[in-house]
Amino acid sequence: MGKRHLTLKDRVELEELYNKGRCVEEIAAKLKVHRSTVYNELKRGDTGEMDSNGRIGYSAELAQQEIINNYRRRRTARAASE
Fold first, then answer.
1. Considering only CA atoms, which of 55, 59, 1, 57 is closest in space to residue 30?
2. Is this prediction's pTM over 0.90?
3. Sign, Cα dihedral of 67, 5, 45, 35
4. Each residue of 14-42: pLDDT tens digit?
């Protein structure tokens, strides 16, 4: 598996699979990423609530917004250091 970034489409698919009760290994195989990528993504999109399966809640939109905020923060920090 090569390194790649998840897209919003990937995150939405992750959310759908996760909400259906799929395990991390199944989700990773479906998205063709390492299971650690899925675990990191679940932390990134943690809603702070429990889902219907008794696991942490995940929101693809929340995770995507976090990624956008991180990119902006890095770009601002890089511009300030130049």
1. 1
2. no
3. negative
4. 999 999 999 999 999 999 999 999 999 99
